[in-house]
Write a structure and sequence with these properties.
This protein has helices at about 215, 330-335; strands at about 5, 15-20, 25, 35-40, 50-55, 60, 65-70, 80-90, 115-120, 120, 130, 135-140, 140-145, 150-155, 160-165, 170-175, 190-195, 200-210, 225-235, 245, 255, 255-260, 260-265, 275-280, 290-295, 310-315, 320-325, 340, 345-350, 355-360, 370-375, 385-395. By secondary structure, the chain is mostly beta strands. It has 2 domains: about 5-235, Jelly Rolls, CATH 2.60.120.200; about 245-395, Galactose-binding domain-like (Jelly Rolls, Sandwich), CATH 2.60.120.260. Strands 5, 6, 8, 9, 12, 13, 18, 28 and 29 form a 9-stranded mixed β-sheet that branches. A 7-stranded antiparallel β-sheet has the order 3-4-19-7-15-16-17, with no helix packed on it. Strands 20, 23, 25, 30 and 32 form a 5-stranded antiparallel β-sheet that branches. It is globular, with a radius of gyration of 21 Å.
């Protein structure tokens, strides 16, 4: 469940606090940003994230590709929040990382194959930010790069310009100081240059605002981490993209807060969460359909979970039930955490969230509104799960 977020300086007619689903807003031009732009207010605490995936794939095979974006990269307190950019091979939502054994920095969804850059460095003296960590994910294992020292100047609610240059073997991040008006930017400075060995050459650009724990570390004065974004783009070949259709957030309310996920139950073929996917338009000549989602598991708090047997059970439009076992790597994440190498070693814990991506029968889909029923198999009642961020892809 998510509380309210305080926002200001976006556009007329907004209340001083917003809640789901109105915590992602298009703002009018203002003195700091002279164009319309995106504002995201992340009120989820311990440890929240709003991630925005560009649906057009980004290909950097046999070349250095460039991703550009403008964002408010201000760090007021490293324990409040920051921004990140990722390229994930799969369209799984909200890519994250974990660096501590307890899984509280950040411990959310570990992508399968991905590149992540966390702009979490609170530079000495304040008023600046830099790269806190860079992550190379390969089959959910994370090679970590830290020790970056370069900084750029920031200013609250003003935009920095970023340029990410990516090949399979090298990553560079460049950035400007904060712009006075969101349209004029100073020269770019190099924040990082890292040799990498990425296991993929095509993926999805994802931009994320993180809220580590604003309420906890502000004595309840800062209810959300708010950032602004503009002018996202990348170069390279124009690739065909999947038609995508999302399950809406649940928007269940309790105690003045709003939820976005759905409870799922164990039971093989039910009971199950029944989710609506509206307005599905299957493209002519489509050959493949896939689902991506976030599942939150309670892992093994009571010591009796049979994690090796965990599976997702689903059906579409009342047709046959299908079983999707967790992969070996996914089970390993739940049992052991994420394996680290590079500048961090050992195992880092998770909060129980997994991002799933798997193929579903195209023949089970219908034009128009569809119903997806989801349950779990071999998950005890004491380990109830929840599902969110569900998207159907058809191509």
């Amino acid at each position: 469940m998510v509380g309210a977020a305080t926002v200001s300086g976006c556009r007329t007619g907004l209340p001083p606090k917003v809640q789901l689903p109105n915590d992602t807003l298009i703002c009018a031009p203002n003195a700091a940003i002279a164009s319309g732009h995106l504002l995201t207010a992340v009120a989820e605490q311990n440890y929240g994230a709003h991630s925005y995936r560009v649906r057009q794939p980004f290909d950097f095979a046999a070349r250095t590709g460039t991703v550009v974006f403008d964002a408010d990269a201000t760090i007021e307190n490293g324990l409040y929040g920051w921004i990140s950019v990722a390229i994930t091979e799969d369209p799984t939502p909200t890519p994250s990382f974990s660096l501590y054994a307890m899984g509280n920095y950040e411990g959310a969804v570990m992508p399968r194959n991905a590149l992540e850059l966390q702009l979490s460095r609170d530079c000495p003296g304040g008023g600046g930010t830099g790269l806190g960590s860079l992550h190379e994910f390969s089959n959910h294992a994370d090679r970590v790069h830290t020790g970056f020292t370069a900084c750029v100047g920031t200013s609250r609610h003003h935009l920095n310009r970023f340029e990410l240059r990516v090949s399979q073997s090298q990553v560079e991040l460049w950035a400007s100081d904060a712009s006075p008006d969101g349209t004029t930017f100073g020269p770019l400075k190099q924040l990082a240059s890292v040799a990498v060995a990425l296991p993929f050459t095509r993926g999805f650009v994802q931009l994320t605002t993180h809220n580590h724990a604003t309420l906890k570390y502000s004595n309840d004065l800062v209810d959300a981490w708010v950032t602004r974004w503009d002018n996202v783009g990348f170069d390279g070949p124009v690739l065909a993209r999947a038609a995508e259709f999302e399950v809406p957030d649940s928007l269940a309310t309790a105690g003045g807060q709003v939820g976005f996920g759905y409870v799922t139950h164990n039971g093989g073929q039910g009971p199950a969460a029944s989710l609506s996917i509206k307005g599905v338009a299957i493209p002519p000549g489509a050959t493949t359909a896939q689902l991506t989602m976030t599942m939150l598991y309670l892992q093994n708090q009571f010591g009796d979970a049979d994690l090796d047997a965990y599976a997702i059970v689903y059906r579409l439009n009342g047709k046959a039930w299908h079983t999707q076992p967790l992969t070996t790597a996914e089970r390993g994440l739940l049992k052991n955490g994420v394996a680290l190498s590079g500048d961090a070693t050992g195992l880092a814990g998770l909060q129980g969230a997994l991002g799933h991506f798997f193929e579903v029968p195209l023949a089970d889909l219908a034009q128009g509104d569809n119903v997806l029923e989801v349950a779990t198999a071999n998950v005890g009642p004491q380990y109830a799960t929840s599902i969110s961020n569900v998207t159907l892809l058809v191509h």
